[in-house]
Amino acid sequence: MMYALSADASHAQENADIYDVNLIEFDGCESVTFFDPGIDYQRQQGTPGVIEFVGNLESIAGRDHIHSAPLGLLLLSRRMVRVLEAVGPFPHRIIPTVIYSERIRHLVYSGYPRRRTWHSVTDPALKNEDFVILQLLERIDCLDRERTLVKGVPFHQCGEELLGQEEAEPLVLRPPPGGFPPVFSVPELLYYCYTEEARQACEQAGLKGLWWRPQP
Q: How far apart are CA 16 and CA 10, in angstroms?
C-alpha cells in the first residue's frame, strides 16, 4: 500500500480554515513550490534561506505536519524527517522555516506589497523553528501507464499528464530495484508517496497531525 499525506485539518473544522500558518511573502514566491527536484530554489531563484510564516503557535505545538497558505506548502517537523531517514535513505534537501506568533504579525509583516520587516524576534516564546520543508531530489519513473486507470481509462490514453491524490483507480507503481524509499516522488503525481513502512514508523514514533490517504 502506498499513501499520500496531508496535514490533519480536523482541529480547524469549527472555523473552516484548514491552514495552520500563513507565508510571509517574498519576491517571486508565487513560483516557488520546493517540489521540482531539479531546482535549487535558493541558489537558482533567490529564495530566502529561511522561509518565514506567521501562525498560532499554540495550535501547532506537538504536531508534526502542518499546512500553509497561500501556496499550500506542506511542512514537516524535524522529528518526522528523522523518523523517515531512519526507515531508509532518500535523496532530499531540508529548507528551514521559522513561524512567528500571530501576536506579532504587525511587527514582522507590513508594507505594500506586504513583506518581512527588519524587526528581530529573539524571544523563543514568539517563534517556532521546529518545522522544515522537505524537497526530494529525484523522481522514480515507476508508474504503470497501462494498468493505472483514470475513470476506467489507462493513464496513457486518458489525456491527463498529472494526477492528484486519489484520481487514479487503481494507481499501479512498479517497484524499482531494491524497493521504494520511505518517501518518493513520481513524475506524473502531484504529491509525494509514502510507503507502508514509513507510515508505521511515524505511528510508532507517536507523530501527530498526519492524515494518511491510501492510494487505491
A: 9
